[in-house]
Design a protein that fits this description.
It is a single chain. By secondary structure, this protein is of the alpha+beta class. Among the domains are: about 10-180, no CATH class; about 350-445, no CATH class. The chain is built from 17 helices and twelve strands. The strands form four sheets. A six-stranded antiparallel β-sheet has the order 1-7-8-10-9-3. A two-stranded antiparallel sheet has the order 2-4. The radius of gyration is 24 Å and the shape is globular. Bound molecules: adenosine monophosphate and magnesium ion. Adenosine monophosphate binds next to loops.
Length: about 500
Amino acid sequence: MFHNHDSILVQEYASLGAPYLTEVPTTPLRTEADLVHLNTALATEVGLNAEELSSAQGILVLSGNISFPGYESRASVYCGHQFGQFVPQLGDGRALLIAEIRKGKQYRQLQLKGAGPTPYSRHADGRAVLRSSIREYLASEAMQALGISTTRALSLTASADPVFRETTETAAIVCRVSESFMRFGHVEFFCYTNQLDALRNLLTWHIEQHHPEIDLGDTETSLHAGLLKWLGVVIDRTARMVAKWQAVGFCHGVMNTDNMSLLGLTIDYGPYGFIDDFDIDHICNHSDHQGRYSYRNQPRIAHWNLYALAQALSPLIPDSKEKLQNLLDGFAEVFHAEHSALFAQKLGLSSTQGSAVDGFIENTLKFMHEHSLDFTRFFRSISTLNPNAPGEENFASWQQSAFFPLVLGDEAQVNQAKLWLKQWREATNRQNLDIQAWKKKLDQTNPAFVLRNHLLQNAIERAQQGEFTEVNRLFTALSDPYDATQLPSEYTAQPPEWAKSLVLSCSS
Ligand code: AMP
Ligand code: MG
């Protein structure tokens, strides 16, 4: 039941049992849950039957009222560094693993977020409110459509059960999907509780399951080499993921080590945000008073978190200090290369790397920052420029573009923009360019629409009144953020003034 004939329910992770996982039943809601949205494409991809999942029985499973047939739900233990401080015990406080599905070589885990307390809830209620569940549900799929590695979202169910935050809200549950939900914090937990054999077994399982290309062999030496190789992969994936965040103006908001995936996936969508008016020091989480997780700091913090991971791994690899250091030093190079390549593509430049390109990228971000230009609209407007046209002509066609990002009355801004245009034309350095192909490629690189906070806020306020059409509309739009002709005009427009006053905090 629930899975198609091409897939099977398995207990691969579950069979690890203690000390990693504890059986914890989901807590049924007191009022009936409705299925707000089902991601039917993802259901099919995973090997699940969308029709059965939408049935009364299916909704009971997706809202945690009954267990997935044949599987006992489980919570895992981890710890982590939160805002730089070590917190010795965390864990799945409101996430429960409810199934593992194998479809040929493809393996996926299903987790319910908000299905009741666990031994790791630390006096909290184990619930998630409608507001935060809508935010996680939509962001997961928005990131996926932008080509950024992320956990996925299968379903959103909601009920009238009250949940107490700053005000009384209602409960909602996201069923999320991933190859693994393991975090840097899992490694930290077994290191700092001095359970090194358990850590070694967990990592052996994890690497065999998710990195079959890494051979751990059967000697100590081969194990050490395998672990180092694996750390290199985590570093590489994390660096690329954060470079992609930067390239769409995404801020995660809570980059604690317990929110960092061992597979380099964007995980745990809380007070995240896509930047509207560009500010390089943008902080999307109101609770982040120091700006530790600001846009500018994201790469540095990812690197810091990787240090914490390497530190926790080091007891398993004797005399490895220098090797670990070398691997960590590699972060900057991977990040830098990916960042340059992505921004060069966004700017439509011919060369993707080199100091001239890097200098121009830096100047562009400075220009955007100084004039608070809308991140998404600025990049989207570049396809209306012509690398072969003189400055005045370029400025004129730019001005007519639907995505024109400047305030025309602002003379200083216009002059700066003209200067930037001149530099841009030099940097593009294009001869024999097929302009149509170039424009098309740019419009497939720079989204016309991102999941802006005010759009989410609209959808949330309507959902809180029991009206979910806007959630549906956003979901449809975010699956193809590149085709402006298919998007509602308010999704691609400059955000309204009130968007600037929206505040997001850790509370969810
Ligand atoms: P976060 O900052 O949302 O990633 O959460 C940090 C830790 O707090 C994790 O261990 C979560 O499982 C836990 N947590 C957050 N909210 C709740 C909640 N409402 N009930 C139980 N645990 C929670
Ligand atoms: Mg978390």
